[in-house]
Amino acid sequence: MTIGTEHEYSINDANFRVCSVSDEILHEACGSYQSDIPFGNVILSKELQKTVIEFIPYSPTDNICDLELQLLSGMNRFNHFFGSRYKLLGLGMHPTAHLDDICVWNRDDLEIYEAYNKLFNLRQHGWLNIQSLQINLSYTTEYNLVEQYNKIRSLLPYLIAITASSPMVEGKMTGVCDNRLLYYRDNQKEIPTICDQIIPRKIKSMFDYLSGQEAIYNGLRSRGADILCEEWVNSSGLIIRPSRHCLEIKALDEQECIHSDMAVCAFLCSLMRYPSLDHLEDDHEVLLDMTEKAIRGGTSPLRIELEDLLEKAWSCATDDEKVYFPVIGDRIINGSIAERTMRREDEDISAILNDMAESLRTNIPYDSEE
Prior knowledge:
The chain is built from 14 helices and ten strands. By secondary structure, the chain is α+β, with helices and mostly antiparallel strands. The protein is globular and about 50 Å long.
């Protein structure tokens, strides 16, 4: 199974004010206003918001350590060229940014963004202030695809719990661990089948999935948005990308550093090898309820189940993957990044942001107990 990832980071000045300069960074790196460019061992790419830049490993791989090395090389290269001017910050949302601080990408793809804006209004946090860790897993046969898809959809609430890292909106703690998903879940409410409340329905075949896609396309066509009728328009927490022969997980908050992202990947890949996860819930309504608990409370509401999954994952992990398991074990026992951040509610926000930026720069997972 080949794995690839996509990592979104906000671009900040020294005081963690977001900077709408992704186009200028890409221009400086390659000499023209491109949407994505090779940058050493990664691809740098634009996002909808010009305050975010995306890092994509140049080559998908079946080895998590290799994936981390590609990303770390790209991050070090970025910091060498741009680190004196900009600080990058992970997490599922920028903790202090206001919508007026954020500009939309305006170099290309304008007709796509205009169609989205006409239907859904892009000037909301569910569009302009979200940062996700996307994990792409390859599939081979249709049987393999269906098996992986249904297993991952049942794992989504647990992965959401572990990765929750957006407890703060516009400088205020909200009491919710994953605000990104709260906004993301409703950002296309005018056509609810697009997101389907984050957790997709169980499928029996590729035909099942494509039938759901067609329902989405029909909703878009009825509103004159034919331009959006592409496989990527599906915004559920898990989608299929037939053109890439992969499953794409979209429900996860970006973490504080690359090593923590890779820990999530190692945990997932190990669980995918476990021969029988029959105890996993597959009822849609129950999974939605579990997801709500994960969004609100992070790992704490699902700790017992997560500990069981960690034990199962360990039994199927490679030696390389086991290197990352302490991060997952720590998140299960001591809480997600969101839960840890919420414990610092009485501290100055700048201290928290400095700690998170330092974790990303050094690639050392955040430890609130230090």
